[in-house]
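Quick one before lunch.
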Amino acid sequence: MRFAQSPIHLLNLGNVSLLICSVGILAAGCSKPSFEANRLAAASFLESQDQQKVDELAGSVGELVEQVFGPPDAPKWPENAPTAVDMAEVERCAGPVGRAYDKVERGLYRKHCVQCHGITGDGAGPAAALLAPYPRDFRRGTFKFKSTSIGSKPLRSDLVKTIEHGLPGTSMPAFGALRNRPEFEKDIESLAEYVVFLAIRGEVERRLLKRAVDSEETPSLEDAKRVAASVAELWVNASANVVEVPLIPDVPPAEYAASVERGKALFTSDQASCFKCHGNEGKGDGVSQDYDEWTKDWTIRVGIDPASKSEWKVMKPFGALKPVVDRSRNFHLGGLRGGSTEQDIVKRIVLGIDGTPMPAITVSETDPNAFNLENVFDLARYVASLTGVKPETEAATDSGTANSAKGAQ
Ligand code: HEC
Ligand code: HEC
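Model of the heme C complex:
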């Protein structure tokens, strides 16, 4: 296998120089940050921990990706790819923090997100290793809290909701306060564009790495552009994969109590199996606990046991963080990540949580082996009752299908 060497992308300096820049110590002498090559994916696809081999592959693909998407200070959109992001917004988020000649604020991503999500969107910012769960690595192109089916891209409105409201119970903050200042009012939408840019860029890189390993050849610039176009296409068509989420009706108190009871029985039934992961009482202590797809990607997929330090530590030199089990939720702690209203919970049950062990369930009024709508509502009311959020105090943060239509790009 032949791969051109590219030392620039192998230097792990992006975050470090950035940190120094952001605290202003060396403001005058800051070197321009670069996107970091995905060495972990390279090692995983190669099924090798040979540093030189991994660096050669990651470096040559990283260089190609830079030709197509540009460096962090000068992002560009791949030629001939369908327009999946608004580059004017992307440019506003990219680059160093500050105001340009037109007084418009720039560098929003480095101002608000980089310490956790990293300059490359790899979820490995300087603060990452201290956080549980780890910040999201956008480069798989997989998102958890969305209106679309498992395996599909989220809508912009899903990302906007996450950035605006945060993910309760995790370190992902709510940026909703930006809405209170006229000059920052649209920043959340811009940041969502930038997340999509980083996600597309990262997924293109991953696909090119895989392709290089499978074909034992360095991909060409034309290959890179073609891959970029097909990944962009997935984002452009995201709204085709929206799943209709039924609206949960209000019920009178007596009916409500019966519904919660039925939900509890279903929760602990073999048919629904919720208890296997969430435990009999929904405390997140079921027998089945597993890792998420981000972790499995470089462990289980290549035969590494994530629970064994002696096994997983071979991937540490490539940027791997200690694998942590993606425990199922303890509902009694309240503050659910995807929203705590009954409607939010219905949405989670119907859609599942992509990239995690939480499955989507099939709803059908005709198939006796599937769940019907009443079953889903019963389950959602039971789960909501555990969180302590009273139905009458619920704020409608998200209204299923109504929101989906608005979110279509
Ligand atoms: C203090 C750390 C921190 C900061 C700052 C932060 N995030 Fe996050 N973010 C997280 C964590 C942790 C997660 C993963 C939570 C999970 O897995 O449930 C996350 C997840 C996400 C997700 C994925 C949601 C999904 O559905 O999968 C998006 C999108 C996101 N963050 C965007 C941003 C943006 C944009 C900014 C800056 C405006 C930002 N984050 C700032 C910690 C942070
Ligand atoms: C195979 C294991 C598994 C099964 C079975 C399972 N869950 Fe989950 N569930 C999880 C995991 C893991 C998470 C957390 C995923 C994450 O956010 O990373 C989760 C999260 C959730 C959430 C979202 C909480 C939030 O913070 O937004 C809800 C609601 C939920 N589960 C309900 C259910 C219900 C109801 C059932 C049964 C129909 C069920 N789950 C079955 C593993 C499971």
